[in-house]
Amino acid sequence: MASGLCPENVGKQAWPELLGAQVSVAVAKIHRENSNVRPIVVPEGSGVTKDIRCDRVRVWVEGRIVSRVPIVG
């Protein structure tokens, strides 16, 4: 499943299977499955920029659990 925001050639772009996972497991899997992106852990309620970057995956968490599907952008 692609996010539709970045070219297909950047690799895997979405990880719906990580919703509800431990953050450490999610970050490791994203690193393993797409070395072109850098996972950034973001606590729910935090402010973030609205720019789109094809080398970033925001991993939204509540506590240490992934609370949104991680998507490149």
TrEMBL record:
Listed name of the protein: Uncharacterized protein
Question: Pfam families in the record, alphabetically?
Answer: potato_inhibit (PF00280)
Q: Which InterPro entries match?
A: Prot_inh_pot1, Prot_inh_pot1_sf
User: Which molecular function terms from Gene Ontology are attached?
Assistant: serine-type endopeptidase inhibitor activity
The residue range of the signal peptide is none
Coiled-coil stretches:
none
What family is reported? Belongs to the protease inhibitor I13 (potato type I serine protease inhibitor) family.
Q: Which organism is it from?
A: Stephania yunnanensis
Do the record's keywords include Phosphoprotein? no
Q: Which domain of life is it from?
A: Eukaryota
Q: Which GO terms describe its biological process?
A: response to wounding
